[in-house]
Specification:
- By secondary structure, the protein is of the alpha/beta class.
- Helices cover 33% and strands 18% of the residues.
- Strand 7 and strand 8 form a beta hairpin.
- Helix 3 crosses helix 11.
Length: 454
């Protein structure tokens, strides 16, 4: 990280504002959200405070849900993994509390308003109000059914997940709208779960000729598109859903209208479009959020361009600049924000953010059915992509294993070489194992060890 001299004007303004704040307010940091982005932010902030020996900063985490789910395995838990997989990839928020965070609140943030003289007032749906010098937005995004809704309760979410499985099990026609990575992931696991041999068809709506967007290399897109097209039970439609409620899922029979005029009778309809939520609670701060619900941030500091002291991890417009949201990018954003939160409070210059994956602007891999097929995307990745193409699948089970996600498999939990990866993995055709250490299990172990130390 490097000092950002271009941000000194904003920093100086922030310092003058801080001088007018109440003493208790100047040392309070509120983190909104405690899913992947929020957990990483908490961890990095606590680490940075320990490193700088800072003890007078009060940290408050507010999350609308009483539980946590691992995003990367949601489709698996909704389908072939069943209840056992869901239990493995979810837990209570209590279990993931980061030692060193002052307070956790289970509530939904209704609004964040800027105060005269600097700072913010954070109001919750439960009637609570917290004043803070710094607010970090880490609310990420949602996808209907694939991710739990804002304010969801764990018991109700388990019931919802079970209902999705039952609907898919009896379906003869499933329509999935969206051919980004999440849509492909969903289509692959649904195909393995439904009764393809009995005639069930999985319809994947692809807006162009190829899956994914044009930030991916054409060769990678063609390879994945053909794999999906040739898979039994899959039907690709190069079209768009034009229903007014195209973003509303359905677990009961429904007619899906396409732009071409074609119609599909679907027993289950699953739209896989991401929606960012920060714009909902930042509406009272003019210019704080973009039209898509992301937080407008300076890509160098990850501080909001409309409000000093407001930062974002995983839901800022830098996500568009970086091209994807993944573990490495989120972790680097959390590291930058943790440092700049403390720099803001102390009046020091901001540090400059660098992407966790600077050599490409797309996801590094796609999964089409966990345990069935995963593809490492090496086009448009410079020399790193060339190296990855050769070494994919070696040393076994994956070059990207332990250091990336804590599993003993690759970034998707399954080796990229099963069955048609690239490089040495394709030559040796090594079969994968199921993951024996998920991010939830890893964080639980880390927190338990930290609690023992303290």
């Amino acid at each position: 990280c490097r000092n950002v001299t271009s941000l000194r004007v904003l920093s100086q303004t922030s310092q003058s504002q801080k001088g007018n704040m109440a003493a208790s307010q100047t040392k309070t940091v509120v983190i909104i959200g405690h899913s992947s982005s929020g957990v990483h932010t908490c961890q990095k902030l606590v680490q940075e405070m320990k490193k700088q020996q800072i003890e007078d900063v009060r940290t408050i985490v507010i999350d609308s849900r009483d539980f946590f789910e691992v995003d990367g395995f949601s489709t698996y838990s909704l389908t072939v993994g069943g209840e056992a997989a869901y239990e493995m990839h979810s837990c209570t928020q209590e279990e993931l509390k980061v030692p060193g965070i002052t307070e956790y609140k289970h509530d939904t943030v209704a609004s964040v308003t800027a105060l005269d003289g600097g700072g913010f007032s954070v109001a919750t749906a439960g009637g609570d109000t917290v004043q803070a010098a710094v607010v970090v937005c880490a609310t990420g995004f949602s996808i209907p059914l694939l991710k739990p809704s804002v304010g969801a309760v764990w018991a109700e979410r388990k019931t919802e997940v079970a209902e999705v499985r039952r609907a898919l099990r009896r379906a003869k026609s499933v329509v999935i709208a969206g051919s980004g990575n999440a849509g492909i992931d969903m289509a692959g696991d649904v195909r393995q779960f439904v009764d393809v041999a009995g005639g069930c068809r999985v319809h994947l709506i692809v807006s162009g000729e190829l899956v994914l967007n044009d930030s991916f290399g054409e060769g990678d897109r063609k390879m994945l598109t053909e794999k999906i097209r040739q898979s039994p039970g899959m039907v690709l439609h190069h079209d768009r859903v034009v229903d007014e409620d195209h973003n509303s899922p359905s677990l009961t029979p429904r007619t899906i209208a396409l732009k071409s005029g074609a119609k599909i009778e679907a027993d289950v309809y699953l739209p896989v479009f991401a929606t960012f939520h920060a714009g909902n609670y930042l509406s009272e701060i003019e210019g704080a959020s973009a039209h898509n619900g992301m937080v407008n941030v300076d890509p160098k500091s990850l501080q909001c361009t409309a409000a000093a002291g407001l930062f974002a991890v995983g839901c800022g417009t830098v996500v568009t600049d970086e091209g994807a949201i993944d573990f490495m990018r989120i972790e680097r954003q959390a590291k930058t924000v943790a440092a700049n939160v403390l720099n803001f409070l102390s009046g020091h210059p901001m540090v400059e953010h660098t992407s966790g994956v600077s050599f490409t602007k797309h996801d590094l891999y796609s999964v089409f059915g966990h345990g069935h097929y995963a593809q490492l995307h090496t086009d448009n990745c410079g020399w790193q992509g060339i190296c990855a193409r050769f070494f994919c699948g070696f040393p076994f089970p994956c070059l990207c294993g332990c250091w990336l996600c804590g599993c003993n498999e690759g970034p998707c939990g399954y080796t990229c070489c099963r069955p048609g990866g690239k490089g040495l993995g394709k030559i040796f055709g090594v079969a994968s194992k199921k993951p024996d250490q998920t991010p939830v299990m890893k964080w639980r172990a880390q927190n338990a060890a930290n609690k023992k130390k303290t």
